[in-house]
Automatic annotation (TrEMBL):
This is tRNA (guanine-N(7)-)-methyltransferase. It comes from the Bacteria. It comes from Comamonas flocculans. NCBIfam families: tRNA (guanosine(46)-N7)-methyltransferase TrmB. Residues 12-21 have a biased composition (Polar residues). The lineage of its organism: Bacteria, Pseudomonadati, Pseudomonadota, Betaproteobacteria, Burkholderiales. It catalyses: guanosine(46) in tRNA + S-adenosyl-L-methionine = N(7)-methylguanosine(46) in tRNA + S-adenosyl-L-homocysteine.
Length: 251
């Protein structure tokens, strides 16, 4: 999926910004997993949306997901939050045909691009929900239903005043950890070292999760290097992978 540049990726965390004392009080805005930005849908992406959308797009509904019905089989369920243009998502799904991938993205060009890849590459184990991943995890996924979660190269929100908008925050991590089955994993990756350090701090503080790295994990073989990541590596931007697993319940 490469680096999530602003012109490509729209799945971003927006946590509530505190109202200053000088401002009038108003209800807190809800936490969302994305910010919508402009983007143009190509003819090929639009065609994929029209032709493949009915098969691979799932409607959001605040009711538990029937994964068997959605995928047509029982298999480990992996949630991906924000897949951008879907390059890495399609590669991972092809490399792991025995798993089901539930992918959340609201950016129409990205959804169309992944559907186009699905059609061209014959990938059958992906389903897409065009909706806020926070609401999907809260209302459509049951505790212990997931076997894994992928969050690759979320927007680092470089400026200090924007750090509160970063996706990896304690409330979301606690929610995702509750949706993992014991032994399930949460895999995050970033090429921005300060964000990697914050991710490590937040993930390590979640009592349901256990770090498999020391503290960083080796890049798992299923996560491919994309063109944006290769470009970053050439520029000296190191990539950090963090893989945490859900602890087994206490006896």
């Amino acid at each position: 999926m490469g680096r999530r540049l602003a012109r490509h990726l729209q799945s971003r965390a927006v946590t509530e910004e505190q109202t200053s004392p000088a401002e009038p009080e108003h209800p807190r805005r809800r936490i969302r997993s994305f910010v919508l930005r402009a983007g143009r849908t190509t003819a090929g992406q639009a065609r994929a949306l029209a032709e493949l959308g009915p098969r691979y797009l799932l409607d959001y509904a605040p009711v538990p997901l029937d994964a068997m019905a959605a995928f047509g089989r029982a298999a480990p369920l992996i949630l991906e939050i924000g897949f951008g243009m879907g390059e890495a998502t399609a590669q991972i799904a092809q490399a792991r045909p025995g798993d089901n991938f539930l992918c959340c993205e609201v950016h129409e060009p990205g959804v169309g691009a992944l559907l186009k890849r699905i059609g061209e590459q014959g990938v059958g184990n992906i389903r897409i929900v065009r909706h806020d991943a926070v609401e999907v995890a809260t209302h459509m996924l049951a505790p212990g239903q997931l076997d894994g979660v992928h969050i690759f190269f979320p927007d680092p929100w470089h400026k200090t005043r924007h750090h509160k908008r970063r996706l990896i925050q304690p409330p979301l991590v606690a929610l995702l950890a509750s949706r993992l089955a014991p032994g399930g994993y949460l895999h995050c990756a970033t090429d921005w070292q300060p964000y990697a350090e914050q991710m490590l701090q937040v993930l390590s503080a979640e009592p349901l999760l256990l770090n498999t790295g020391t503290p960083w994990a080796e890049r798992p073989g299923y996560r491919p290097l994309t063109k944006f990541e290769n470009r970053g590596l050439r520029l000296g931007h190191g990539v950090r992978d963090l893989v945490f697993t859900r602890r087994a319940p206490a006896p």
